[in-house]
Amino acid sequence: MNIQDLIARVGESRAFRTKARTIAPAALGDAVRFPYGAFAFKTRLPKGTTYFIEASTDLRNWSFISQDISTGEAVEYVDSEAFKFGHRFYRLFAGDVPSVNVIGYAAVTLPPGFSMIANPFDGPNNCVAEMFKGWPDGTTLNKFDTRFFRLAENEIKLEKWTNSTEQLLPGEGAIFFNPTSDYKSHSFVGDVLQGNLSVPIPSGFSIRSSLLPQPGSLDDLHFPVANGDVIHLFDRDRQKYVLYPYEGDKWTAGTPVVSVGESFWVAKTEPGNWTRHLNIGG
């Protein structure tokens, strides 16, 4: 074998080893928020893979929270500090390769009586029956049907939801009734939507929420407001609606501010689309 052949074989070997070390992006899943406040998720990585995890509360600023080496394909991470945050998001880097998704949770407090809620994540199962397990009989959830202009009824009777397949998707909203006398904490979990996002806002009445798990004023959240529109926020503590009209190119009663996991009524003069864009990347 001449020197040229040896060099060629060495080059092929190096290329093979480099290719063998290429790491596929990790997919984060099996998210769960425990009653005591911790949050956990799982992924799979080749044994010996160095990885680190970052967390954020605003999807813009990320902080390093953990680093380790995979000892097997199954990897589980438990954030014991999650109880300190109302909402938090996570991404994982395997080497320098970011995970294909960002996962997280958002906690809402549901007082006795009514609340207007929203699911800000895309979960493996967005069914109401899966999201609201363990609630007592008398619990109700009502979405607004914009085709028939009425509230659709869904209730727990004999420990089962009457419409067990109904879904609550990001961008939608619902009126939730807590039949107990206790303030209860509920956590939504799942993937943060990314890319070019849009939810239609029909003329007339509808219930809507932000497609992204971000709090703020509707101006900051790029809601497509127009003169004649009215936003109805529900005050959970006082159990009453607060109206925010938009006239003369301004909010006449102050700018409405929504929380993560909160929905609201929209009375819209003309239809529009609520568009957002998010690309977290690496």
Give the helix/strand layout.
Layout: H1 3-20, E1 29-33, E2 39-44, E3 50-56, E4 63-69, E5 74-79, E6 87-94, E7 97-98, E8 103-110, E9 113-117, H2 128-131, E10 140-145, E11 150-152, E12 156-157, E13 160-161, E14 174-178, E15 184-191, E16 195-201, E17 204-208, E18 216-217, E19 230-235, E20 240-247, E21 250-251, E22 257-258, E23 264-268, E24 272-278
Antiparallel strand pairs: 1-2, 2-5, 3-4, 3-6, 6-7, 6-8, 8-15, 9-14, 10-11, 10-14, 12-13, 16-24, 17-23, 18-22, 19-20, 19-23, 20-21
Features:
282 residues, mainly beta, 2 domains, 2 helices, 44% strand, globular
Outline the structure in words.
The chain is mostly beta strands. The chain folds into 2 domains: 3-101, Immunoglobulin-like (Sandwich); 107-278, no CATH class. It has helices at 3-20, 128-131, and strands at 29-33, 39-44, 50-56, 63-69, 74-79, 87-94, 97-98, 103-110, 113-117, 140-145, 150-152, 156-157, 160-161, 174-178, 184-191, 195-201, 204-208, 216-217, 230-235, 240-247, 250-251, 257-258, 264-268, 272-278. The strands form 7 sheets. Strands 3, 4, 6, 7, 8 and 15 form a 6-stranded antiparallel beta sheet that branches. The chain has a 5-stranded antiparallel beta sheet with strand order 17-23-19-20-21, with no helix packed on it. Strands 9-14-10-11 form a 4-stranded antiparallel beta sheet, with no helix packed on it. A hairpin with a 2-residue loop joins strand 12 and strand 13. The protein starts with a helix and ends with a strand. Residues 1-20 have low confidence and may be disordered.
